[in-house]
Amino acid sequence: MSDDMTATMIRSNQRFALRGLVPWLVFAAVLLILPFIFTDGFSFTLMNAIGINIVFALSYNMLLGQGGMLSFGHAVFFGLGSYAAMHAMIAIDDASYAGEGFWAHVPVVAMPLIGMIGGGLVALVLGWPFCRRAGTAFAMITLGLGEMIAAAGQMFPSVFGGEAGIYGNRMVGPQWFGLELAQAADVYWFIAFWTFAGVLAMWAFTRTPLGRMSNAVRDNADRLQFIGYQPRNIRFLVFIASGSFGGLAGGMAAVNYEIITPESLGLIPSGLALLMAAVGGLGVFYGPIVGAVLVTLMNSLLSDYSDASILYVGLIFLSIVMFAPRGLAGGLEHIRAAYREGSLARRLPGWFGGAVAVLLIALGLIIVIEMLFAGHGGGDTVNVFGIQFQAGGATGWLAGVAALVVGVLVMRATRKNREANA
Amino acid sequence: MLEIILFSLLNGILYGLLLFMLSSGLTLIFSMMGVLNFAHASFYMLGAYFAYTLGMHTGFWPALILAPILVGVVGSLVERFGLRRVHANGHVAELLFTFGLAYVIDELVQLTWGTVAVPYREPDYLREPLFTLFGTDYSIFRGVVILISILMFIALWYLLKKTRVGMMIRAALTHGAMVGHLGHNVPRLFMLVFGFGCALAGLAGVIGGPLLATEPGMAATLGPIVFVVVVVGGMGSLPGAFYASLLIGLLQTFFVAIDASVADILGIFGLQIDPYGEVARITLANLAPMTPFILLVLMLIFRPRGLMGELEP
Fold it and tell me: DSSP letter string over A102-113?
């Protein structure tokens, strides 16, 4: 290694020591403060689900965002890790009832580690033949794997519990840190700890040589082969790491929900991981975190307000793939880069116009969609953000179309503003 | 026994032809544009639902023609205003786009037609038996489906091999840039092929709807299997897709029909195991939904280029 390269690394290490710590402190502070702001049971349930999904989406992004491997079967590791943790939890229950044996000394708090080992082992056993190629072949084979394991889940009821799944009890075994794990509020601390640990570990992974090599495999596998690396080996190792963290999320889910069904192995949860990672942004480390928070919130909160909640999530995903391929976090990074460059003030008006246009178009679409499917809700009025429209009446249609047209016009009018300053 | 074999053969071929109708469109789109259309089965579902709604106004036969055309138009619009924009961002972005599209279409179908199956049926006179073998009827509709499929294949073959458009499509498959240099509008050709592929999927939906069931889960059940067909047959190979469709159709139908458990099969080879154990109790019929995926994984491990593919995917 040459001298100036070493110097750069030392400099970057120093920078890491000082400025790199700030986001982690903020993250930890947010995790610590949240339970004192949102104190009702529903909020805790929601926050626990978000924590699990953050780890799940980040572990998925190790494959797609960092390794360039599009997987449609990531839920296999989540689900099998969850099953491993659940069986361990049942073993703890039995052992502590008997009062002896190895499992009697294992706390439930450590279950995510069991899930991690489970997910990693599954990836280790299954992964090798899959990692020969990235791209479409990898996508198809993971799709096939996911469907196969999900189908197998129905066939072995003693392991997977058939349609009903298996369930356990988290209030067994030795207690650590006085965590009783009885209420959702107790479980929050458990989830918060493992979310923080998982995120930190996955960030650390991106800094290891292997993490760097996985980026290289994504960008140019041929060139890597010329330098003397085996892309397949690197993919395989990344696959195992990603499977382990998927299993970690599964272990968290096992403790949180106390039930796991074969459905959690299939294409729908795998698609959810992809959805969260892509909405947040594949190219930025914290992207999947943003995506997990947003998608989980939308999935659970929107359904109270609209029948078409899943449709909105799908439409957001589609428009991000079409118009903002770097995701929400990519947009944030864009603004940050402009701020550092000092061009933020100059570019802000154009972006502001674009944001207004997007909001107007979204409003128009929401009104139109709600009008379209008004008949299924049962009521004869359509409520969009507190404004009442007569179902099937002309005002609703007019308002929706008007918002759409004005939105498109604003988009057109401010386009020059954005392009001139690009 | 002979009865089971004969009817499994007929049903397997029928199912295989239906799979080929889906996978031929997917293969065409893939080999031309390099896009594995994740939403292909969603277009199949749209075909069934369109035919159901149209059929209430026009009757079964006009809907058989109109619904695939409508699906083809929807497909062309999707290509023109969606996929073409995403194309610049590479294949993964295209795959993500079609994945999101499948999500949105599935949801739209549920919102429009409800979450339970709709009563989409073939006309009564098509439910009469075409012939009766060993006391089991084989309905006219199944015969009609086989006839329609075969007619469609002949039309597809004629279109690709004997017409000018087909020549352009075949040229654009391998030398897309050159076809463009010669003054043909390749993006428009892409749009037409995508629309045509979707229309084929729609046709499969029109005849598959009454055969299987017209419900919002129909895309999710058949979609992964169609991918398996395309990969097993060899990406981009129409003959490969044909053989793989028949193979998987027959395999699944026979597995469902043969109700032998693992213990029975081991018994044939002289191995006696406890017939009530969890593994021993699994029957071939239980395994049927898994067979395409087992085939896919084995194929990708041992022969990644598929039955008749020229290149590894």
Answer: GGGG--GGGHHH
